[in-house]
Amino acid sequence: MRTAVGRELPHEEVGRSWAAARGPAQGLHVDTAACGRTSRAVRDRVADHLALEAGVGGYVAEAAVTEELRGARDLLGALLGFDGDDLAFVESGSAALAQLLASWPVETGDRVWVLPSEWGPNLAAFSDRGLRVEFLAADGQGRLDVEALRRRLAADRPAMVHLTAAAAHRALVQPVAEAVAVCEPAEVPVVVDTAQALGQIDLPATGCAAVYGTGRKYLCGPRGVGYLGVRDPWQARLVPRAPALAVGTWPGEQRPVRRLESREASVAGRAGLATALREYHGLGPALIRERLHAVGSALRSALAGLPGWRLRDPLDAPGAIVSLEPQGRGHDVGRTRAGLLHHGVVSTVAGTERAPHDMTRPVLRFSPHVDITADDIHRLAALLAGLGA
């Protein structure tokens, strides 16, 4: 397969296998950063568990999948650089952050350091918890200035540093490992939002204090299943506040983070995520990530120079997220997205509320998975050109 710029994409077999596991899409789905397409096996696993619940009752059915969910935590931990026992399942990334902040040893007025590209709802969560946000220095692309962080820590110390590993509105990846290496000697915890990063980019075992996110994006698990991980010594400092029933003494839960795991949950969804994780590991995480980077670069190359649009990131930016910023007055991004949807192309309009300190205009975001083809890329570029005209 050749891209619009004449370069071959690697790992064709990964794309074909991914597509075959899902069956035909109804059009062109380039919206994985919102919600990926589940496989047939994932959908079947969810249905099978719901049938079991109907047959034996929800709690008996949940007990029957204890080992499967333990295995899912281990597979998830392998991607996050965490021990499976230090991970808890929750409903979403936003629910995970809310649980984490409610239990974290911080007080009203404490400070959290973030980058200007921080996800808008995270900023709202910090405010809801009574935390004061202060911004870190970044380079011209929006990446953390690690040396500036080092100098700042020599004179000051926040309650935590929070990083979004991969941004939702554009192809921006943060140097998490480098940040942890600088913060660890100062005993400043680094908390990482991995919602967009998980499955798309490599997340090495950095030693960050906590991670959280959701399984519905590049892992292509069901909606409604997120995760939260906390590492020692910070896990021992958690003060679980919910659920209210016997919060400190859940039987069998020795790890404090597991007491944050939601008890009233979609267990069928968790079983579906377990299947999605097995499929992802079966194809090979490194191969998937390499192909995702390649399709992102190919799509940016095909859309570069499109009249009325500007690429938000360099052609060789990491990962598969591609954002176009409209140029000129009166350009209705929502209308363009609706026009694409009319032609069967699923994409997202990312408004400025997603990153209010990094965005001045809405962007049109595309986030393909490994199953996108050269023909798909050409078709998308042609459709956008036609809609622009």
> Would you tell me the overall average pLDDT?
93
- Give the neighbour order of strands across the main sheet: 2-8-7-6-5-3-4
Contiguous helical run count: 12
Shape: globular
Hey, roughly how much beta strand do the residues contain?
5-15%
SSE string: HEHHHEHEHEHEHEEEHHEEHEEEH
Distance between the termini: 29 Å
Number of strands: 13
CATH level-four homologous superfamily name of the largest domain: Type I PLP-dependent aspartate aminotransferase-like (Major domain)
Classified by CATH, the class of the largest domain is: Alpha Beta
Low-confidence stretches: 1-6
- Structural class, by secondary structure, is alpha/beta
Assembly annotation: single chain
Largest sheet: 7 strands, mixed
Could you walk me through the main structural features you see in this protein, from its secondary elements to its overall organization?
With 389 residues, the protein is α/β, with parallel strands linked by helices. It has two domains: 124 residues, Aspartate Aminotransferase, domain 1, CATH 3.90.1150.10; 241 residues, Aspartate Aminotransferase, domain 2 (3-Layer(aba) Sandwich), CATH 3.40.640.10. It has a seven-stranded mixed beta sheet, with helices on both faces. Strands 9-10-13-12 form a four-stranded antiparallel beta sheet. Strands 1-11 form a two-stranded parallel ribbon. Helix 8 links the parallel strand 5 and strand 6. The two termini are 29 Å apart.
What labels describe this entry?
389 residues, alpha/beta, Aspartate Aminotransferase, domain 1, Aspartate Aminotransferase, domain 2, 2 domains, 7-stranded mixed sheet, 4-stranded antiparallel sheet, 12 helices, disordered N terminus
